[in-house]
From TrEMBL:
The keyword Ribosomal protein does not apply. Residues 60-149 form the Methyltransferase domain. Pfam families: Methyltransf_25. This is Class I SAM-dependent methyltransferase. GO terms for molecular function: methyltransferase activity. PANTHER family: METHYLTRANSFERASE (PTHR42912). It comes from Actinomadura graeca. The keyword RNA-binding does not apply. Keywords: Methyltransferase, Transferase. One of its GO terms (biological process) is methylation. InterPro entries: Methyltransf_25 (IPR041698), Methyltransf_Superfamily (IPR050508), SAM-dependent_MTases_sf (IPR029063).
């Protein structure tokens, strides 16, 4: 799962015992060589699904990490593109890889933007927010968008209990809860706290009109259910 350029087990252990911010600062130089970086296939499927809703002027990647979301925003946005994250280490990598974008270090639960963007995206970040924290995140994105602006992010369909991945992710989340009960500072990263209906409810409460579209390029499960869909939250 990791390339030779990726982190060692010791480095991963040190990261896992750090705070979220410090952990990502440590991981940043090797992050793009880990399976945690959003795959290009997911980014390309998202961009394809969004083309019919654009073009857009200005775009924002929320929890941008090392800047993978620029693969989506760059071709879709005619104006400026920017990323926001709280890890200085991840932003340094993003700035080096995409010097033409704007990079902002900020707490995404309190985004420092007001009606500045037409498109916001986010990839692989929702697991870093406890359910009680999502309303503040979504309210900030809503505030950052201009009227009619779109917030889009992919979300996986629920795994059947017969899938080995179901049990692997359940085991990961259980281990993380035990770690956070026994160790400080906490490291919040859960894979099973982002049920689609709960996310839709939180987006609607923040003022969005929410729809979802399948991402068929990412495959289907038995019975024809898409493995992944794209949440489209429109600001009125």
């Amino acid at each position: 799962m990791f390339s030779p350029q990726g982190p060692s087990l010791r480095e991963l252990a040190v990261q896992a015992l750090s705070s979220v911010e410090r952990g990502y600062d440590l991981l940043a130089p090797k992050f793009d060589h880990t399976p945690f970086r959003t795959p290009d296939g997911v980014l390309d499927a998202t961009a394809d699904a969004l083309r019919g809703s654009g073009p857009f002027e200005d775009g924002l990647d929320v929890c941008c990490g090392t800047g993978a979301g620029m693969r989506v925003l760059g071709p879709l946005c005619r104006g400026r593109v920017a990323g926001v994250d709280f890890s200085a280490g991840m932003l340094a990598q993003a700035r080096e890889a995409h010097p033409g974008a704007g990079w902002v270090r900020a707490e995404v639960r309190d985004l420092p933007f007001a009606e500045e963007f037409d498109l916001a995206v986010s990839f692989g970040a929702l697991g870093h927010f406890l359910p009680a924290e999502r309303p503040a995140l979504f309210a900030g994105v809503h505030r950052a968008l201009r009227p009619g602006g779109l917030f889009a992010f992919p979300i996986s369909a629920p795994l059947p209990v017969t899938s080995p991945w179901y049990w692997a992710l359940l085991g990961f989340d259980t281990a993380m809860r035990v770690r956070n009960a026994l160790w400080r500072p906490p490291f919040v990263m859960y894979y099973r706290t982002c049920a689609l209906q709960a996310v839709r409810d939180d987006l609607a409460a923040a003022g969005f009109t929410v729809t979802t579209v399948p991402l068929p390029a990412l495959g289907v499960r038995e019975g024809g259910v898409p493995r992944c869909g794209l949440v489209l939250a429109r600001k009125g």
